[in-house]
Structures are given as structure tokens and as C-alpha cells.
């Protein structure tokens, strides 16, 4: 596994819109403040042309333009890290234009989540380059920075190797009033051990992302799962998964498909984030739906972790070796 160099003051951070662009004035204000915050901390920031543009579907630009602008940042020797500005729905349109060989030859951190799984997953499983499943650039625009944001920068700088679960999280999305809001945490964090275990410890190499996205990547040329889980079978594979908008039938179907493909054969455990939108017509809890598919694998399964759409969230270095611990409703992610 190739790990990009940790970033440091004086480095350049690239910002691009791999999926949705930002037209909303308050969101633009937030991103511009994030850029200012990085500059105040000694970083340079390079923004691509598509960050503040959008078409009628919400895409920042065409797939070709998004791919080309991303490639420019990858090939730019001064850029040490690339942030996505947002998720969306159509990142896959840029994949055919992404220069994956350049990513191997110029490894640098890429960070985003949700639809950005579409890019993170092949970077990790096909290019064998680590990438970060974590907050977008906009979170760095809050005033003042809260601990999760400080941690996120610390992971990229190599100063944070251990992340502990937060006390509270956002139960739903919130509209901005100033553009500088922090996390509107209103629910107590409570990690859940799938079989009621007192304590779970899972070690292995992290891989995964947003299930909504992984579902359509399966079996395409951008899916390197089989080679990844074979190469790192001695480490064990820790699947880190979360969903954006799935009902129970869809969730079960996609997990079944991945299981039948053999993706979980070297799994040492699963860590599920908090689902943003989950629907069921038969009042089947999320945990029960997952356990109906994965329960017979006889590996530990954690639910409601600090990963994904209901922030704040951990910065998960996909491709890294780590240990995840869950006890008494609290959790820890520690890199090896």
C-alpha cells in the first residue's frame, strides 16, 4: 500500500468539485472561509474552475471537465492533498477521464465522502494508494473549528493516529444561517455491538465507503476488491460501510451481492456508520437487516459509529491497517 506523504505548512492543498458544484451563497462563503483558514495555518490553496459552478442536475461540470481538473491537481507537483467540495450523484461520469496511472506515480491524499466513494474506492483497491473517507473542505469553514475538524487536519498531517468517538452527533441535516456554523449536535453518540458483546476489537486493513455507491461499482473495471482482499488477506479486512438513502430490501440485496461475490471472505469485522435515511415497510431495524445477511460470517459487527453522513465523522484512511474498539457505547479508531 502506498501512503502519500503527510502534509505540512507550506504545502498546497487542491480543492475541486468531483461531483456537485457549489452555487449556494452561504455554502460558497463557508468554502471561502475554509480556504482562508488553511491559508492562515500556513498552507497554499489551489481551487479548480468548477468549484463554484453547477448544471441543472447539480453537477459542477461535465465528467470530462471534472476528470481533467482532477488530473491537473494530481500531476501538479506542488499539490500535496486534494479535497472534494461535496458529494452528489454523478461522480462516476468522470471516472473514464481520470488518469489512474498518474495517481500511482504522484501519490497524494484525496479526501471526501459519500459520492466520492466512486473515486476513493478505485484509488485504494486498483491503484493501491491510501485515501481518506472523511469530511469535505466545507467543514473547515466553520467558526471556530471544533475538535472533529482539528482531528481531520491532524490525520492528514500525521499528528493524529487515534480518534475517539464524539459525545454527540447531528441527527439530521441543518440549514446554514451564517455559513460558519459548527456541527449541530443534538443526539448522544452510542456505538452498538451487533451481538451485544461487552467489548469488540477488530484489527485489519480498512476498506469500504458509501454502500449506495459501492452497489454500482461492483464488477466494473473500477472495482479492485478481489485483488485487494487477496493481497492483504494476512492482515485481515475491516469493512467500513455507511449508507445515504437505502431501504431495508435494498440494503440487504446489496450486502448479499457483495457477500456472494466473495468480498467478505477475508473479513475480520465490519464497522457501520449511522445511516442518514433508512426506510422499512416492515419496521425492520437497520441492524437486523444487516445481521440477516452478515450474521453467519461469525465476525464482529459494530453499528452507529462516527462514520459518514451524520457528522461529525472520523477521518478513515482507507487502505491503512488499524484497530477499532467498541465498548460501553464508545469507540476508538487507532492506526497501526
Automatic annotation (TrEMBL):
<feature type="domain" description="LD-carboxypeptidase C-terminal">
    <location>
        <begin position="203"/>
        <end position="324"/>
    </location>
</feature>
<keyword id="KW-0378">Hydrolase</keyword>
<dbReference type="InterPro" id="IPR029062">
    <property type="entry name" value="Class_I_gatase-like"/>
</dbReference>
<dbReference type="InterPro" id="IPR027461">
    <property type="entry name" value="Carboxypeptidase_A_C_sf"/>
</dbReference>
<keyword id="KW-0121">Carboxypeptidase</keyword>
<feature type="domain" description="LD-carboxypeptidase N-terminal">
    <location>
        <begin position="13"/>
        <end position="134"/>
    </location>
</feature>
<protein>
    <submittedName>
        <fullName>LD-carboxypeptidase</fullName>
    </submittedName>
</protein>
<dbReference type="InterPro" id="IPR040921">
    <property type="entry name" value="Peptidase_S66C"/>
</dbReference>
<feature type="active site" description="Nucleophile">
    <location>
        <position position="114"/>
    </location>
</feature>
<dbReference type="Pfam" id="PF02016">
    <property type="entry name" value="Peptidase_S66"/>
</dbReference>
<dbReference type="Pfam" id="PF17676">
    <property type="entry name" value="Peptidase_S66C"/>
</dbReference>
<dbReference type="InterPro" id="IPR040449">
    <property type="entry name" value="Peptidase_S66_N"/>
</dbReference>
<comment type="similarity">
    <text>Belongs to the peptidase S66 family.</text>
</comment>
<dbReference type="InterPro" id="IPR027478">
    <property type="entry name" value="LdcA_N"/>
</dbReference>
<feature type="active site" description="Charge relay system">
    <location>
        <position position="242"/>
    </location>
</feature>
<dbReference type="InterPro" id="IPR003507">
    <property type="entry name" value="S66_fam"/>
</dbReference>
<feature type="active site" description="Charge relay system">
    <location>
        <position position="309"/>
    </location>
</feature>
<dbReference type="GO" id="GO:0004180">
    <property type="term" value="F:carboxypeptidase activity"/>
</dbReference>
<keyword id="KW-0645">Protease</keyword>
